[in-house]
Amino acid sequence: MNIQTIVKQVLEELEKVEEKKQLSAPIGDKQTDKSYTYEKKKVVRVDNAEDREVIEKARSITPARIGIGRTGTRMKTKEYLDFRIDHAAAQDAVFKGVSDEFLEKMKLPVLQSKSDSMDEYLMNLNSGRQLNEESRKWAQENLSVNQQVQIIVSDGLSSTGIEENIPDLLPALIQGLKGKNISLGETIFIKRSRVWIQDEIAAITNCDVVISLIGERPGLATSKSLSAYLIYRPGEETVEADRTVISNIHDGGIPPVEAGAYLADLLEDVLKNKASGVKYAKLK
Q1: At what angle do helices 197-205 and 133-142 cross, to 10 degrees?
Q2: Tens of pLDDT along 125-166?
Q3: Last residue of a domain, which of 27, 62, 95?
Q4: Are 182 and 271 in contact (CB under 8 A)?
Q5: How far apart are CA 198 and CA 228, in angstroms?
Q6: Which residue range forms the structural domain that includes residue 176?
Q7: Pick from 159, 149, 221, 216: which is nearest to 185 by CA?
């Protein structure tokens, strides 16, 4: 069930409640306005809390569902509706895909992994780690080679994370790299791809560092998060520890513009040290 359906159901329930109120209200007090706004607020709903201020402070610094109160053995209706909306948003982030309008606006070449469907992408990890034949051929014929940095944008597990963050992050990153006189290949978008597909792109382009900006697995706290994975000169013996990752990029974590500037500095340092992942960490 997607978020639009959930919100529609919530508004229908609110309308039913309002209609009951109107029927029971005095004639002179009845209203005709049927517009509703559903607003999520961090409100402490613990009945008879011993120290409400402490709970309020805790709620202000975490997206976790604390201080929501309960009715008997279950959460209160407002918190249950919030939960369903967040759950629907997380599902949408995974399944709806990045829109064609967004890709056209960003002017990114679109490639495709071997995953022909989202079901295959979720069930067969390897299908997202390689380009399909058509995309591989296009990359070999069109992408610049021997550049210092190659940028990949991937929907991963959060199309929402891509659409929310890339418009601010990508320009900041590219501007930062150009300001440092670091050469760049053409930024590409790869549908239904996983982090390891960057190894194949690196082999095709012979770049020094490849960085993937990929949608993070969504949770109930946020469905808009992005991660950046980068690796220096990957090869056949590359392991996960060779990759450096910066995660939690979104408006409630690392702001996308700030992340773009930081990643430019990080890439400059990785190029200087000719190492990423654990090897890079040991040098620091």
Answers
A1: 30
A2: 899 999 999 999 999 999 999 999 999 999 887 888 899 999
A3: 95
A4: yes
A5: 12
A6: 100-283
A7: 149
Q: How far is CA 216 from CA 39, 61, 108, 224, 271, in A?
A: 25, 21, 20, 8, 25
Alpha helices in the chain (DSSP H): 3-24, 52-60, 77-95, 100-106, 118-123, 133-142, 159-179, 197-205, 256-273, 277-283
Cα 200 to chain centroid, rounded: 23
Q: Are residues 210 and 232 in the same domain?
A: yes
Q: Is residue 85 within 8 Å of 4, Cβ to Cβ?
A: no
**pLDDT tens digits, 107-128:** 999 999 999 988 898 889 899 9
Same-domain status, 271 and 142: yes
> Do 129 and 47 fall within a single domain?
no
Q: How many residues does the chain have?
A: 284
Residue 200 burial by Cβ neighbours in a 10 Å radius (0-12, 13-18, 19+): buried
Residue 191 C-alpha from the chain's centroid: 14
pLDDT tens figures, 24-78:
555 555 555 555 566 667 777 788 888 888 888 888 877 777 888 888 888 887 8
Return d(Cα 181, Cα 177) in angstroms, integer: 6
d(CA 147, CA 183): 5
Q: Is 216 annotated as a binding residue?
A: yes
State the DSSP H helix or E strand holding residue 211, giving kind and residue range, or none if neither: strand 209-215
